[in-house]
Design brief:
Blueprint lengths: L6 H28 L2 H12 L20 H26 L5 H26 L10 H22 L9
Keywords: Membrane, Transmembrane, Transmembrane helix
Length: 166
């Protein structure tokens, strides 16, 4: 196990994943799953529009000065791209652009891979204590985001979803 392994942090993240999944299955999916495809995707993308918060990893004092600048930069810029793609997805879905669904696919694949990459880098390279005030991003916000990415993939892959109300 990497030297940065921290059981309380891992349990916190695992708890956030479990709780996020239970809440999504119990409360979010019944509502979102019943919505027209474009509306459901737009709502889920809106949640990701706040991913600019990852830029805070590059703010002096928000995280430890010992946090790798390369890690902070990759996380911050990756999240900013994801937030931008989420906003573009929302616009494309709202205005019914013909390329709206491919844009949503791009946003969702990018966003998912970006979060998984950040976790991989964080677990392999970083001590979670170096995240400072940012500890709540990987411990709470990222599990919520990943679960919502699963919901987006579910809607995108659902049979007959192209025939739902526009």
């Amino acid at each position: 196990m990497p030297s940065s392994f921290n059981l309380p942090f891992v349990l916190s993240v695992a708890g956030a994943f479990l709780t996020s999944a239970v809440v999504a299955i119990t409360y979010v999916w019944p509502a979102v799953g019943a919505m027209p495809r474009h509306d459901a995707l737009r709502l889920l993308a809106a949640f990701h529009a706040f991913r600019f918060l990852g830029m805070n990893f590059m703010v002096a004092g928000f995280v430890s000065s010992e946090l790798s600048p390369d890690f902070a930069s990759e996380v911050g810029w990756g999240d900013l791209v994801a937030a931008t793609l989420a906003l573009i997805s929302m616009a494309a879905l709202s205005w019914r652009w013909s390329i709206a669904i491919p844009i949503v696919w791009t946003f969702n694949v990018w966003g998912t891979l970006d979060l998984l990459n950040a976790y991989y880098m964080g677990v392999r390279i970083q001590n979670p204590g170096l995240f400072g005030a940012g500890i709540y991003i990987p411990a709470l916000y990222v599990p919520l985001l990943l679960v919502s990415h699963v919901l987006v993939f579910t809607i995108l892959l659902r049979p007959g979803s192209d025939k739902q109300a526009a």
